[in-house]
Amino acid sequence: MWALVLGTAGFLLYYLYDINSIIWKNSVMQKFFAGGSVCVVVATVWVLIESLRGPIFNSVVCLVFGAGSLVFLGLLIYTLFFALPFDETYLEESRERMAYTKGVYSLCRHPGVLWFSGAYLCFWGMTGDWSRGIFFLSMIALNCIYIIIQDIWIFPETFTNYEEYKRITPFLLPNRRSIKACFSQNKESRKRPKVDKV
Fold this sequence. Notes:
By secondary structure, the protein is mostly helical. The chain contains 8 helices and no strands.
């Protein structure tokens, strides 16, 4: 129960952080993204530790879901903190700028939600507990509400090219064209420029 309250508080801090970037532009509230992340992480770890105190329902299933959660968490961390310029995205004051549309962000407009949902479904699979599923599903639902607010209001106000980005790239579920665009960009970025031999 308390973990759900803490996780919900984390998402409220995310919402306030984004609203602040558009309306108030308060320097203290720019730290709300970090505060929200701490709340969500602590709440999640709390639920996972609580679940480990009970009998593990199946160690093989737990290992499989645990490995899956690590893959999704790795993708989430990369998408949020390494695929984007960190300072400009999370620390600097909101101003007119271009949305990043390459790499994983050509798959869909909110790829982090895919990885977050995958990780939290795997966490639920690890616990094997239907009652704890309420927490994990609630976190996924709060994240979906968050991206809807971003997509409808925050990002169009923040990024000058967001309407164009919306026309080209799917909202959440990648399609054949967006998958092709993502992989063709990755292939091009791996190509090294030819150097003439002297």
